[in-house]
Amino acid sequence: MAKPIACIVLPTFNEAENVPAVLSGIFSQADAIPTHELHVLVVDDSSPDGTAERVREAMQHFPHLHLISGEKNGLGEAYKRGITHAIKTLQPLLILQMDADLQHDPAVLPRMISLANDGYDVVVGSRFAPGGAIPGLPWYRKLISLAGTRLVRWFGGIPPIRDCTSGYRVIRADLIPHCDLEHLSTRGYSFQSSLLCELLRNGARLVETPIIFSGRAHGESKLSFLDQWEFVVNLFRLRFVKTARDRAVRHYRRSAEDRAPLK
Ligand SMILES: Nc1nc2c(ncn2[C@@H]2O[C@H](COP(=O)(O)OP(=O)(O)O)[C@@H](O)[C@H]2O)c(=O)[nH]1
Ligand SMILES: [Mg+2]
Predict the structure, then answer these.
(1) Which ligand 1 atom is at minimum distance from the Cα of 82?
(2) Which tops the pLDDT comparison, 120 or 257?
(3) If DSSP codes are grouped into helix, strand and coil, which group holds residue 5?
């Protein structure tokens, strides 16, 4: 019988120097993930540095590698497009989120997927869980991540998760349609915290596993001042813009408790 698919959605903007090593690193883990067929969907926003060409070259070696290209409209918009496309074309059991700059170690993938196999709906690679670390990141970036997590927890009214803004996650794909991606207003990095709150409001069972978030292999962070501003504005949205959907969500949460654990 065919194995269920685990699809990593990998957003890229100007990652030509990193992406070949990231893809080799990911696919080298395939044998350590016997329960799933591992796929990668690169969502490139017409990077001027030729990232897409590097991905097309890698496609010669990796049959489960896919690529979509679009206009640059921020990380959140790239994820919305990528996740929607992956679900439509591959019908994966698991969707994974990961950065394409080697800050997320592919060697952690088997552990994260095994936690999903244990029945968790969302597995977060956590920089702030015991055993996690962020060596080499400037102090102000650590502060932004730590403060960001506190703020998301407080404004979003969610349980004490240690890392709400991590971009390394496994998500049970059948929860995504309940998250109404199209209507998550965020375009940039704050998509990550909005999605997390949506998943939890939909009754997702979440677990964190420690990761070492090391420095970028090449290039620079794309986190802009605008992204940080959007993050602050979005906090208020998380708190106050409770849509009519919330009523439906409460209903769903009740039925979510009856869901069968992942096999
Ligand atoms: N497609 C796409 N990818 C993006 C965009 N902004 C950032 N990324 C990718 O998202 C990932 C995380 O971005 P990065 O700049 O490393 O963020 P940081 O790790 O928080 O500093 C990397 O793989 C980037 O190439 C964007 O606007 N579009
Ligand atoms: Mg990065």
Answers:
(1) 1
(2) 120
(3) strand
Query: What local confidence, expressed as pLDDT, does residue 246 receive?
Result: 56
How far is residue 139's CA from residue 13's CA, in Å, rounded to a whole number? 24
**What is the dotted CATH code of the domain comprising 5-256?**
3.90.550.10
* Residue 20 near residue 54 (C-beta atoms within 8 A): yes
Cα of 253 to ligand 2 centre, how many Å?
33
Reduced to 3 states, what is the DSSP secondary structure of residue 68? strand
Specify whether the CB–CB gap between 180 and 198 falls below 8 A: yes
Give me the residue spans of the domains in the chain. Answer: 5-256
In this structure, the residue with its CA closest to atom 5 of ligand 1 is: 75
| DSSP secondary structure string for all residues of 76-136 | HHHHHHHHHHHHHHH--SEEEE--SSSSS-GGGHHHHHHHHHTT-SEEEEESSSTT-B-TT
Q: Name every protein residue with a CB atom under 6 angstroms from any ligand 1 atom.
A: 11-13, 15, 43-45, 72, 74-75, 78, 99-101, 103, 167, 221-223
Query: Is the pTM value of this prediction over 0.85?
Result: yes
Residue 213 pLDDT? 93
pLDDT for 73-105, tens place per residue?
999 999 999 999 999 999 999 999 999 999 999
